[in-house]
Amino acid sequence: MLLQTTVELHGKAGGYVPDRPDWTIPQDWDTYRPAEHDVWRTLYQRQIKQVKGRACADFMAGLDRLNIADEIPRFERLNDILHAATGWQVVAVPGLVPDEVFFEHLANRRFPAGQFIRRADQLDYLQEPDVFHDVFGHVPMLMHPVMADFIQAYGQGGLRAKALGALEPLARLYWYTVEFGLVFEAGEVRIFGAGILSSYSETPYALESPVPNRIAFDLERVMRTRYRIDDFQETYFVLPDLERLLNFTQEDFAPLYARVLNQPTLEAGDVIAGDDVVHLSVPMP
Ligand code: HBI
Ligand code: FE
User: Fold this and answer.
1) Which one of 54, 132, 171, 244 is least enclosed by Cβ atoms within 10 Å?
2) Max CA separation in the chain (angstroms)
3) Which residues make Cβ contacts (< 8 Å) with residue 64, sequence separation at least 6?
4) 80 touches 58 (CB < 8 A)
5) Looking at residue 47, what is its pLDDT?
6) In whole angstroms, what separates CA 22 from the centre of its chain?
7) Residue ranges of the alpha helices (H) in the chain?
8) HEC letters along 180-196
9) Distance CA 243, CA 144 (A)
10) Ligand nearest to the CA of 116
11) What predicted TM-score, i.e. pTM, was given to this entire model?
């Protein structure tokens, strides 16, 4: 999720040596304690209210098919449903994994999900992706064929981007779509980004707060824009539709990276000439 700081930020930072080279660990579902299932249920119940009417229809459809309201899901059961839908599976990892490891999993349609769950006193904030962020936030969209192909392509493109010195531009694309993306649906703005949809407070904020910018999606603009890892986003980009993501899987990014790397980087909150700013529809008094 985070750039550069990946390994340092890892919960077991400083010399953590994975048992397996792909960093996967057993989910060990039987070792979750009742209090941990309670945290899941609490998060789920709070979040289902937030996402209704705000998440895009494809997220809601995916979530519905997964049946994950009651307890921390068993990945084997989840994978029966997910694999049948799009050929993806979820694998357990301890937390953030190195970029190359992350890309390799995604390129093979394996989504690394944090095995652990946040504590009851951390419902709203944690730095590393836990099982709630990864499963509630990401897996519903992985049920969608477009997102399934897009995230695989991101994994495939990751190593190439790194070789071209363009990991940051590519990671910004992931950030402003998979994690914090908005999309137009029947003339309204809806959420599909997992970073938003797994956050109680950012879900209404992303759509209703007058504070952040909402800008019509432009690939080059997105790749130039820094993002916040420590607070709500200052800017959200709004895709015209999810299918647009497939265009990016067909495009050769090398010339685009060259252009992006030759232009100044934009700050998270910048609005520049040419931005198509999306305005909230203000209800009549
Ligand atoms: N590891 N588990 C996990 N989840 C992520 O989202 C993640 C990661 N490692 C690296 C990473 N994200 C990003 O830095 C890459 O997308 C660039
Ligand atoms: Fe994530």
Assistant:
1) 244
2) 61
3) none
4) no
5) 98
6) 20
7) 6-9, 34-51, 57-66, 75-86, 99-107, 131, 139-142, 145-163, 167-174, 194-197, 202-208, 219-223, 244-250, 254-261
8) CCEEEECCEEEECCHHH
9) 10
10) 1
11) 0.94
Indicate which atom in ligand 1 lies nearest the CA of residue 167.
Answer: 17
Question: Which residue's C-alpha comes closest to atom 5 of ligand 1?
Answer: 1
- Ligand 1 pocket check for 91: Cβ under 6 Å: no
Q: How far is the CA of 61 from the centre of ligand 1 (A)?
A: 25
Q: Please, what are the averages of pLDDT over each run of 10 residues along the chain (285 residues)?
A: 42 72 97 98 98 98 98 98 98 96 98 97 90 98 98 96 96 98 96 98 97 97 96 97 95 96 97 94 63
For ligand 1, atom 11, the nearest C-alpha belongs to: 1
Q: How many CB atoms lie within 10 A of CB 131?
A: 24
Contact 214, 277 (CB under 8 A): yes
- Strand 110-114 and strand 89-93: the pairing is parallel
User: For ligand 1, is residue 73 a contact (CB within 6 Å)?
Assistant: no
Residue nearest to atom 3 of ligand 1 (CA): 96
Q: DSSP string of 11-70? A: TT-SS---SSTT------GGG--HHHHHHHHHHHHHHHHHHTTTB-HHHHHHHHHH--SS
Does the CB atom of residue 129 touch ligand 1 within 6 A?
yes
Q: Is 229 in the pocket of ligand 1 (CB under 6 A)?
A: no
Listed in sequence order, the residues at least 6 apart from 195 whose beta carbon sits closer than 8 Å to its beta carbon are 1, 133, 137, 175, 179, 180, 202
The closest alpha carbon to 158, from 205, 203, 209, 112, belongs to 112
Q: Which domains does the chain have, with CATH numbers?
A: 30-261 (1.10.800.10)
